[in-house]
Amino acid sequence: MTSNNFRKLSFVLMLSSSLCNNVFAQGKKGDPIEQRVNDLMSKMTLQEKIGQLNQFTSDRTSTGPISANSNKLKDIEAGKVGSMLNVRGSKDTRMVQEAAMRSRLKIPLLFGLDVIHGYRVTFPIPLAEAASWDLDAIEFASRVAGREAAAAGIHWTFAPMVDISRDARWGRVMEGAGEDTYLGSMIAKARVRGFQGKGLGELDAVMACVKHFAAYGAAVAGRDYNTVDMSERHLWEVYLPPFKAALDAGAATFMNSFNDLNGIPATANTYLQRDILKGKWGFKGFVVSDWGSVREMVPHGFAKDNEEAAKYAIKGGSDMDMESYAYVNFLEKLVKNKEVSEDLINDAVRRILTKKFEMGLFDDPYRFSDEKREKKELNSAANKKVALEVAQKSIVLLKNQNQVLPLSKDVKSIALVGPLAKSAEDMKGFWSVVWDNDHLVSLHEGLETKQGKKTQINYAKGCNINDDDKSGFADAVEVARKSDVVVVAVGEAFDMSGEAKSRANIHLPGVQEELIKELKKSGKPVVVLIMAGRPLIFNWTADNADAIMYTWWLGSEAGHAMANVLFGDYNPSGKLPMTFPRSEGQLPIYYNYNNTGRPVINENNIHYRSAYIDSPNSPKYAFGYGLSYTNFAYSNLTLSSKSLNQDGSITVKFTLKNDGKYAGEEVVQLYLRDKVASLVRPVKELKDFTKILLKPGESKEVTFVINKEKLSFYNKNLDWVAEPGDFDLMIGTSSDNIKLKDTFQLLD
Ligand code: GLC
Q1: Count of helices and strands (H, E) across the chain
Q2: Checking phi first, is residue 60 left (phi over 0); if not, alpha (psi -120 to 50) or beta?
Q3: Is 224 marked active-site?
Q4: Which residues, judged by CB distance below 6 Å to any ligand atom, belong to the binding site of ligand 1?
Q5: Cβ of 355: how many Cβ atoms within 10 Å?
Q6: Which residue among 255, 322, 433 is best mutated to probe the pocket of ligand 1, counting the most ligand atoms within 8 A of its Cβ?
Q7: Which residues in 237-276 are b (16+ Cβ under 10 Å) and which e?
Q8: With contact defined as beta carbons under 8 Å apart, do 498 and 483 qualify?
Q9: Residue ranges of the chain with pLDDT lower than 50?
Q10: CB 80 within 8 A of CB 142
């Protein structure tokens, strides 16, 4: 046989063997996934298995997804990488996936990205969306985000973040659903449903990733990455339910958290990841570590080096290592030294491969990387329309003295003042995916678009966001004097809340409040819009401005949403998902506190009460608070019975009427209180809510159903129980404004 023929034959043999490997290794399309996983795993070397547990980031700083001098492409070709994060776009994901297809077994990569509140169209930050209390809107926003991400080659979003937090010093409150476990659980479900759509394998579905498991939002003093120390019961009662809700909604993956919990870093926390998540809850997906959290067990003082960290993490239930290089560098040695059982590796690999099969990536590794689809789906008018609707619903009207809002469309002139008035960039908020700002609409643009030539907009910046320069005050006061109304846009820059953005002082930054004081002297009505990623403190403004709207960071359509609310084309309907403190000294502050033995009966009785001598106990604005341009009347409360037994229920009905002259949506809130129990119980807990649209003069009967589930809590043995006894029932327009009350009994 000539050498040439031999070469040809060997090429054919190599080709057929690799194809055979490929086809044989991955089983046939339509075979049961478990069988295909087993087939594939039977072909994999230990190193290839460990490769699946390794996730690298793209080098975002480089022009392409991976800088030319990095070894990452070679590692991918060598089967040492199971997933990449921060590679985005059909073109780049295809190019990097091609490297995986050059590996021996051609196992496709998973592409993950932080699509937290939108991919190309940016939605309001999650805390703002939570303020809408509109679960359909929140689900739809996540659906659009998931669709856009999937069209851009992304398989997996690192969202929803479901960390409950009661401390606005923590910058990541912007990323969650606020302080309440029930609201947070409902929103967690909505977001998972939105991202995963009709289910994994659909071309417009991305895997959700519930994070950060667990209790990351309870970091001491609101300092990011800080210690978390709490009773197991508190963990189960407040912080775990949103994770379970997300799991029940079908979440494909979880991400652990940077914090230690009661002395054990979450990344190695067997109790969290194996006993609870994979054991009690039966989670079949996989857990990815947070960025570098495996190797961070060394500075935590929990592992002596990255090798030991790898051992503790894999034993603790962390299946994939994000950017620690711990698994890829040490697991093979740990298995060979019998310090880590290969069974643990196999379990993690099985979980990850199963998701890759479910996503259809073995049948077509490039199915998400389609440039034509990407061009059609991203930033479409339909997607922007959804963003506008969600943004409008997220705005919270905090004050509207003498009905200064909505503004008349015949208003002759507006003084538009403040460091955020013309800002488009800050509208994207933290965790925005896109780097350019061309798609973001500022308040100024929104007002210009809406009022065009009808209204003269006199602009002055007035001051910067966060310094002590008052040189712009005079111009601002000047434009105020010559205008009919003053609209002031103040707050935080988009990167003043978010990861690693804890603040010890959460007042309006810089000299912004002093600017408002100067503008108030003009004698014109002053309408203040506060754009921020967290609750801020602005007591003078709260007491002296004529109107205040909390607009958070509203994303792509921010300016249009704010303009629509200012002029009444949308009647504000948002309610606060977090309590707003009067001072940092009140933090952590939340509505569902325990009564204590010396409760505050009223702010004036100063004797021996669980309160401060230098501040009211009450917050500046309560959880669930938000005004409307119309009024809602609550009446005719009825209970189907004054008692229920363990498997019974009580149907609660009442009438809600729109008593005002604007159509509007009201978020009616059901709070319950367990009066006496084996553990002290909160003075009230949100147990249901619904958002209702009513025309002027329209009434509607609202129904809630109370059952044992709504009365249950974790007792001292961590049993989920409903104890017989008396309960208060409260229906409110906010947690501190109860409109209807009654009591009922749970019988044995
Ligand atoms: C970050 C965040 C996490 C994010 C991950 C990937 O540090 O803590 O929420 O998903 O790294 O960017």
Answers
A1: 22, 26
A2: alpha
A3: no
A4: 85, 114, 158, 211, 290-291, 499
A5: 21
A6: 255
A7: bbbbbbbbbbbebebbbbbbbbbbbeebbbbbbebbbbeb
A8: no
A9: 1-2, 6, 9-24
A10: no
The alpha carbon of 646 is separated from its chain's Cα centroid by a whole number of angstroms, namely 35
Probe ligand 1: pick from 125, 206, 290, max atoms within 8 Å of CB? 290
Give the pair of three-digit tokens for residue 349: 């690999």
Here the tokens at position 264 are: 């054990």
Place of tokens 């109304």: 485
Dmax over CA atoms of the chain, in Å, equals: 105
Residue with tokens 């491969």: 353
Q: What is the pLDDT of residues 21-57, one digit of tens each?
A: 444 457 788 899 999 999 999 999 999 999 999 999 9
Structure tokens at 511: 């000299």
Name the one residue in this structure whose structure tokens are 């953005």. 501
Using an 8 Å Cβ cutoff, are 190 and 133 in contact? no
What is the torsion angle, in degrees rounded to the nearest 10, for the CA atoms of residue 247, residue 250, residue 252 and residue 258?
A: -20
What confidence tens digit (pLDDT) does each residue in 88-113 have? Answer: 999 999 999 999 999 999 999 999 99
Q: What is the pTM of this model?
A: 0.96
Superfamily grouping for domain 44-373: Glycoside hydrolase, family 3, N-terminal domain (3.20.20.300)
At the topology level, CATH places domain 632-746 in Immunoglobulin-like (2.60.40)
**Domain 384-586: which CATH number of 3.40.50.1700, 1.10.1200.10, 3.40.50.300, 3.20.20.70:** 3.40.50.1700
- Name which residue sits closest to atom 11 of ligand 1, judged by CA: 291
Q: 322 C-alpha to center of ligand 1: Å? A: 9
Kindly give the distance from the C-alpha atom of residue 210 to the centroid of ligand 1, in angstroms, as a whole number. Answer: 12
Pair of tokens at residue 654: 């009442």
Looking at the CA of residue 158, tell me the nearest atom of ligand 1: 10
Of 134, 260, 290, 319, which one is the catalytic site residue?
Answer: 290
